């Protein structure tokens, strides 16, 4: 609950049109309407022989997902590409794809394990760092394939990509990335190979209408040929993207991903939360689900407000280690509203407390409350009022952190 001085009419609008953050257009920097990232896979020779010079002419920076052995054939060219500001991404060492491609059958994804994939991707980063002095933070799935093994033993390696990289890009997708919803580890990649500028322009115009992020993906950069993003198309695309009238932000995948990630910290997207590497479980308001008649996620405060007796917040949590956790809560409340009872529940575990004073609705405070003994496994953690108060609000809730007790 915030700013009680807001005129009644404003409140009325606020309540009658509960805006789901997900439905609001995404805010790109400097009033841009959309973002485009150009990306090229495999470290094809034509990328540094012809492609980067053209991009540099327009001051456009792209992402190149490299296979180290291919990159070695044009080491100087790739060093120059890095110096010009292009981004280097990871495209693995072996470029393993399904053995359904006959050429991939010697070392197919069907024969991979997650451990083998992990080792290979870490080794790819190490080799690229050695060669070019930069450590990739973005990855493109060879052949766009995200699982390994076969049949009942198939495993997705998306979680591994999510752990090791800021983003992962697939291939031959049908729609641009929705920045408010997308899984960073599965950014869609739309093909530029063999396309005319008119074909790409249709996709760009659609994406601009929806405020999306268009990650384009290709291979060779040359006048013509197989698996080739044509230079004439690329020239027109760069000119169009750089024309301020078109409202396009064109930047490498990693740069846009970092922007989207930061912006999404203020968007409410409920999702399953697991422990961090230190075992701590951080339940921020933007990953929780506000349920009830009045509760609202307030992006400007990164908190849930308008918390009446009938409202609650639920988080989906995945507890890996059963045991005692210390509860830390971050909240604000006007002193005249403080003191109402609340309860935090997860399965049979329960903590009951009273909302402490913070000074004002604008002053957030973080404090350790007590402990909760949690069972392992996926479950719901609920924060809700523990009394049927009829006036005012419970609190503004920004975060609950669960710190394992050693
Ligand atoms: Zn590839």
Task: Please specify the SSE layout and strand pairing.
Blueprint: H1 8-16, E1 34-41, H2 45-57, E2 63-66, H3 68-71, H4 75-83, E3 87-90, H5 114-132, E4 138-140, E5 147-148, E6 155-156, H6 158-164, E7 167-169, E8 190-191, H7 197-210, E9 213-218, E10 220-222, E11 228-230, H8 231-242, E12 248-250, H9 253-264, E13 281-284, E14 289-291, E15 296-298, E16 303-305, E17 312-319, E18 323-332, E19 341-346, E20 349-354, E21 365-374, E22 377-385, E23 396-404
Parallel strand pairs: 1-2, 1-9, 1-12, 2-3, 4-7, 8-9, 10-11
Antiparallel strand pairs: 5-6, 13-23, 14-17, 15-16, 17-22, 18-21, 18-23, 19-20, 19-22
Helix pairs in contact: 2-8
The structure holds zinc ion.
Strand content: 25-35%
Share of helical residues = 10-25%
Taking Cα atoms only, what radius of gyration do you get, to the nearest Å? 25 Å
Query: What's the CATH superfamily of the largest domain, by name?
Result: Glycoside hydrolase/deacetylase
Domain NodB homology: 34-251
Protein name: Polysaccharide deacetylase family protein
Pfam families: Polysacc_deac_1
InterPro entries: Galactose-bd-like_sf, Glyco_hydro/deAcase_b/a-brl, NODB_dom, Polysacc_deacetylase_ArnD
